[in-house]
């Protein structure tokens, strides 16, 4: 979130539509007339990743002359983004950083920002606007409110609230369902729902969860959503570290004006989308987006090679005293471990899908080595219980079913447990967070053996809950956790001959 120090920046003029006309020539600014752009996309979860990724692609389309795809950004929880960007006419700086240079670009595709808890009716109004033809989401894995079994957590207080109060929802499920019901009632065609979060088969997953939620409201409504609403899956990829006060100060000097919330990112950017948009879509493919019939092979490669290794770097990096990804990846032992992790995960990817894993991992190594990003390991470490099932555990199960060992994969799970245990000891108490933190702390405070801890954590998180391979996964995790508790990452690596 923006720091209070922003108000004490050396510059006094704020970024705005007017100020954008006076920026240095080296800064790319919107080349289109923003007053002619009408909203066609509502985005739920308007955080830094959306602003570095989907909003930039839409900005390209607007610059090419499309006018019907402006974005209305909706924050489901915090007012921070709205408070930072509304005084700037929705403009912000995208700082694209590599080890050798930084390029600044002003993004203009977000035309309005809403805060759902303050005015849920305003959010429902834009969702029911006939001009809204696509709703995109980056709300993070935990906000889909899944139970340990993968279904909707019907006991979650926000789900209970939304079912009882459909006019004033709190969750994405509640907003989408109520908006679709209202559109249906007045004959407005449904919007397309495009999930951009790191969920397996994210479109199909959201489709299933939303129908489950809608069925609790009205069986006929659930049937209409199932039959009439498109939920294409997508795969997104761009590293977006948290913005720091130093970033804000540097950007202010380069712009000559203050930007309350610039976004830092890398040059690499990828978006793969299943092409199923009955109401139309921007011409994203003109700007590097890959439109496909089936996104699953690309999604699996990203989840298991990028996201899986990111989690490994985060937890092993934290346990090794490395604050950022580039420093952790420069550690020879961690680098060797990541190579071995990739070697385990690659055989689990779809065959005959045209995936070039050698080029992909070479690109990942270059990205992880980017010293300009300063991507914090603690940031990546958040929400491990929600991320590890698709990033790590799914690959490990497939390894076992193929008769191979997932030893390196399961060290990542053990490192997550060890890093959770280290908070309040070798790591600050709230260094990273997880939806299961309260229960994890209870397990930690009981001072259980490694075997008892792993059993309790697997039960709590629902890891491999119904898989026959669950016991073997736990056995491997126990061995790794014992090594980590005894001698840290060095002992765990030595046991793996790294």
From TrEMBL:
Residue span(s) of domain Mannitol dehydrogenase N-terminal: 40-285
Gene3D superfamilies: N-(1-d-carboxylethyl)-l-norvaline Dehydrogenase, domain 2 (1.10.1040.10), NAD(P)-binding Rossmann-like Domain (3.40.50.720)
Region (Disordered): 1-22
Segments of skewed composition (Polar residues): 1-14
Pfam family, one: Mannitol_dh_C
InterPro entries in alphabetical order: 6-PGluconate_DH-like_C_sf, 6PGD_dom2, Mannitol_DH, Mannitol_DH/Oxidoreductase, Mannitol_DH_C, Mannitol_DH_CS, Mannitol_DH_N, NAD(P)-bd_dom_sf
Keyword field contains S-adenosyl-L-methionine: no
Keywords (A to Z) from UniProt: NAD, Oxidoreductase
One biological process term in Gene Ontology: mannitol metabolic process
Keyword Cytoplasm recorded: no
Molecular function in Gene Ontology: oxidoreductase activity, acting on the CH-OH group of donors, NAD or NADP as acceptor
Stretches assigned to the Mannitol dehydrogenase C-terminal domain: 294-475
Protein name: Mannitol dehydrogenase
Biological source species: Mesorhizobium kowhaii
